[in-house]
């Protein structure tokens, strides 16, 4: 796998390495934060990953973290580590605009739960990262704050809606970013920018203080570069999880299921899919079993997802649509106007059908430890491109991007995108899904897969 052509200070540093540098005296926290700000200064005018930064506050946090170290107080591995926060997550006294003109001057009076936890562990909030307006879109180029560009190719989309968070990590401006994922909003930009994007089981991480898109689909999640970093951050945000040393799983004992893309969508790049499948089957050979006869299930899952997201998103924005429609990004307004037609009985039926599929996939995980599939069925498209021709068919970019990720939001299952390869100069992600509340095992497996990928 190639390296991202844009290289910030943290491009080759993980949390454990940074923590050692701080404790050995190689860097103070203030120096580390200055390096982060310098990387942002150097690259972000091109990338537009960040939309709000308070340099003075970032340096004040750093100075306080240094004072604690000087007093012999060590708050743990996140002490002094710069973190970026998606712009739909509230941050005390730091603008949180949701990528929307409606909230362009909104400054929260308190932190979201996740931000409180990060601060309590000494993490440094470096700034807010760009998002599609109200996190409603998978492209990363539909925000009041402008488009976030892909650091591998500035003419391409970064993916969204957690576009800025993914790009901030991919370009090495920060080692950690927090995002949200309602239909793939962490995993999509992770795949397109070559980082790890992780969403845990539904409700594992508190959404208090996070502006909702669709409340029964929304997940908080993490963007980093290593499995070890996921483990550190996830357990910091949810201290009810027991953190364990990551040991490589014996791949011979792991039961893997491969979900063929054609079971979910016919809108995929055939050559891309063949390369991803060949790479995985080369690495796991006899340990992976192709799952058949899932097409009907995924058609219904897709319909359920759309019905639930449409209904819940419109409920949140109905008053704004009625009173101030011109303030929305046109693309977001169009989606909301279409969502208005969703009927109450359709929503109730979708919720009931979702429960049936949750049980069905729970039973599937009695036979398999992990499900594997591509994160995306297409390459990164051009900025602002909304249709793409695949296999002589015109398909919507939005639909293609969401097709392989959104089922796991509906089912509330842990899912992660990890970098698999580069093709045509762009990163390609592998998606891994596991049983509900099985995050620790998933993180262990990610660590093993990363090791195997290096040898392929």
TrEMBL record:
<dbReference type="InterPro" id="IPR023631">
    <property type="entry name" value="Amidase_dom"/>
</dbReference>
<dbReference type="Pfam" id="PF01425">
    <property type="entry name" value="Amidase"/>
</dbReference>
<dbReference type="InterPro" id="IPR036928">
    <property type="entry name" value="AS_sf"/>
</dbReference>
<feature type="domain" description="Amidase">
    <location>
        <begin position="31"/>
        <end position="241"/>
    </location>
</feature>
<dbReference type="GO" id="GO:0003824">
    <property type="term" value="F:catalytic activity"/>
</dbReference>
<dbReference type="InterPro" id="IPR000120">
    <property type="entry name" value="Amidase"/>
</dbReference>
<protein>
    <submittedName>
        <fullName>Amidase</fullName>
    </submittedName>
</protein>
<feature type="domain" description="Amidase">
    <location>
        <begin position="319"/>
        <end position="442"/>
    </location>
</feature>
């Amino acid at each position: 796998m190639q390296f991202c052509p844009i290289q910030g200070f943290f491009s080759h540093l993980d949390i454990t390495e940074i923590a050692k540098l701080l404790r050995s005296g190689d860097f103070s926290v203030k120096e580390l934060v200055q390096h982060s700000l310098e990387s942002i200064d150097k690259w972000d005018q091109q990338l537009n990953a960040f939309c709000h930064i308070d340099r003075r506050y970032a340096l004040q946090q750093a100075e306080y973290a240094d004072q604690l170290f000087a007093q012999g107080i060590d708050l743990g591995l996140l002490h002094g580590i710069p973190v970026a926060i998606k712009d739909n997550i509230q941050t005390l006294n730091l603008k949180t605009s949701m990528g929307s003109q409606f909230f362009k001057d909104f400054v929260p009076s308190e932190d979201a739960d996740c931000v409180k936890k990060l601060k309590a562990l000494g993490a440094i909030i470096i700034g807010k990262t760009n998002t599609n307006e109200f996190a409603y879109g998978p492209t990363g180029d539909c925000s009041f704050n402008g488009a976030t560009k892909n650091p591998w190719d500035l003419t391409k989309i970064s993916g969204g809606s957690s576009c800025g968070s993914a790009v901030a990590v991919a370009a090495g401006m920060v080692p950690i970013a927090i995002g949200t994922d309602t239909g793939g909003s962490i995993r999509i930009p992770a795949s397109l920018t070559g980082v790890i994007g992780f969403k845990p089981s539904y409700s594992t991480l508190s959404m208090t203080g996070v502006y909702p898109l669709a409340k029964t689909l929304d997940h908080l999640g993490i963007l980093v570069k290593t499995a070890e970093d996921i483990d550190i951050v996830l357990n910091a945000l949810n201290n009810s999880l027991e953190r364990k040393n990551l040991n490589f799983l014996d791949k011979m004992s792991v039961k893997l299921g491969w979900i063929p893309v054609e079971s979910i969508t016919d809108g995929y790049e055939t050559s891309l899919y063949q390369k991803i499948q060949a790479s995985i089957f080369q690495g796991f050979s006899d340990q992976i079993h192709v799952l058949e006869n899932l097409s009907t299930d995924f058609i219904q899952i897709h319909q359920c997802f759309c019905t639930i997201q449409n209904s819940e998103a419109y409920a949140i924005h109905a008053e704004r649509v009625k009173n101030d429609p011109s303030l929305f990004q046109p693309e977001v307004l169009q989606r909301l106007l279409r969502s208005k037609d969703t009927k109450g009985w359709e929503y109730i039926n979708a919720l009931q059908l979702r429960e049936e599929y949750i049980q069905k996939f729970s039973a599937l995980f009695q036979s398999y430890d992990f499900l594997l599939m591509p994160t995306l069925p297409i390459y990164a498209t051009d900025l602002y491109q909304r249709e793409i021709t695949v296999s002589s068919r015109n398909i919507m970019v939005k639909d293609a991007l969401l097709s392989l990720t959104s089922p796991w939001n509906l089912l509330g299952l842990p899912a992660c995108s990890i970098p698999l390869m580069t093709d045509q100069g762009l990163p390609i992600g592998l998606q891994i899904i596991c049983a509900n509340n099985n995050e620790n095992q998933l993180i262990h497996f990610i660590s093993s897969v990363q090791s195997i990928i290096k040898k392929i």
